[in-house]
Amino acid sequence: MRAAFLLLGLVACSPVAPTDALPFAPAGPTATPDPAKPGPFAVGVRTVTHEDRRRPKPDGTPRLLVTEIWYPATQDTKGKPTVSYDIRERFTPEQLMTFPASVPLLQTFAVRDATPAKSHGPFPLIIFSHGQGAIRWQSTFYTVLLASHGYVVVSADHEGGTLDYAVRNQLQDVGIGIATRPIDAQYLITAYTRLPEGDPLFGMVDPERVGVTGHSFGALTALRVAAIDKRVKVIVPQAPPSTDLFFIDLGKPDLGIPVMVQAAHADRTLQWDDNTAPTWAAMKKPRWLLDISKGGHFTFSDICAFDLASFSDSIKLDIPGANVKSVLNDGCAAPAPSAAVAQPLMNHFAVALFNATLRKSPGSYELLTQAKADELAPGDSVVTADP
Predict the structure, then answer these.
(1) Bridge partners (DSSP) listed for residue 211
(2) 247 touches 276 (CB < 8 A)
(3) Rounded to an integer, what distance in angstroms lies between the CA atom of residue 286 and that of residue 339?
(4) Would you tell me how many other CB atoms lie within 10 Å of the CB of residue 232?
(5) For the segment 254-297, what is each residue's pLDDT rounded down to a tens digit?
(6) Confidence of residue 12 (pLDDT cuts 50, 70, 90)
(7) How far apart are alpha carbons 157 and 135 in whole angstroms?
(8) Could you say which DSSP state residue 212 is in?
(9) What is the Cα–Cα distance from 168 to 386, expressed in whole angstroms?
(10) What rounded mean pLDDT belongs to the chain?
């Protein structure tokens, strides 16, 4: 009997194996995982439509924010069917009649409505803002990877400025987006830092750790939100327009937070000298610049995977004031680096900065160097660090 009690005591005192054990530690004070590779979390994804009733449209209906949320999920998510995105769904029936059968699906490793990894939270929040005439899932190579490193990543369609409007020649003027997009981002920050208890992601977001990132017009969104909302602690604008033009109503604010500008010297859509150069000059320390030297405007998205330029004429795709085929090829053809080369570069530097700032990983700061860029893609980029 005594032996039995001793055995029971040993079992009771033995450490309990943690539930949902991770394969390796996420970024933190003592951990510096490779930011170019998937992190330790499986990834779930939800799609939610928000109604911002404070901003009704001319017809009286609320402004809609169709939103994709990628988030850390439990380990048993791995191996389940993953989500893909079909760009055909954005086009009209008439356009689809001439759509080539070869257009691929955009594959991800996220799983629809997977169980959130709440035992490892709360997690930092990152808002992603898409480009003008693009879509909330335009950069899944980046947004899904961020979620795998321990972030809740939220990206909404900016109503009036999406691909759906572009293909119907109904794209709104950029002046409207300058006013509406930052408020969209602020709405999302508020919504996801104050989730109600019944929400599946309740408890997942740390309201004190918020970052914003985006491509093109989405880069401008990130910059403007950082200038007006002190909840934002770090931003990564990719292929940004000039703040000399688009900050005219804000002056030249000192954002007071870490900034990483990612851009391409060969960008034909938003040319370096007129856009990246003045924006970079307006940023204050701590700041970093990743120049993918021969990249183009769409190097910073998944859009190149669809090769829209090759059939833009047959579907009568039109962008006012622009040569559509030239724009859609910007960064999608040689001499621009392939996605297999460029995307790990972008991910490495963006995820490392987010890890350093939002996950308090000092070792991640040490990854923001030219030497690390050259390890990934020798000769393809120039890194300027001004910490």
Answers:
(1) 126, 234
(2) no
(3) 28
(4) 21
(5) 899 999 999 999 999 999 999 999 999 999 999 999 999 999 99
(6) very low
(7) 6
(8) E
(9) 43
(10) 92
Token digits for 81?
A: 């069917």
DSSP assignment string, 104-119 = PPEE-SEEETPPB-GG
Decide yes or no: CATH 3.40.50.1820 for domain 21-386: yes
- Using DSSP's 3-state secondary structure scheme, residue 70 falls into strand
**Which one-letter amino acid corresponds to residue 202?**
F
Peptide bond into 278 cis (omega under 30): no
Q: Do 108 and 83 form a contact (C-beta atoms < 8 A)?
A: yes
Confidence of residue 204 (pLDDT cuts 50, 70, 90): very high
Cα separation, 226 vs 287, whole angstroms? 14
For the chain, give the percent of residues with pLDDT over 70.
93
What pLDDT sits at residue 322?
57
* Average pLDDT of the segment spanning 300-310: 90
The one-letter amino acid at 181: R
- What is residue 270's DSSP assignment? S
Rounded to 10 deg, the angle between the 174-193 and 217-228 helix axes is 60
CA-closest candidate to residue 301, choices 260, 267, 352: 267
Q: In the beta sheet, which residues pair with residue 25?
A: none
| pLDDT for the residue 309 | 80
Judge contact between 73 and 148, C-beta under 8 A.
no
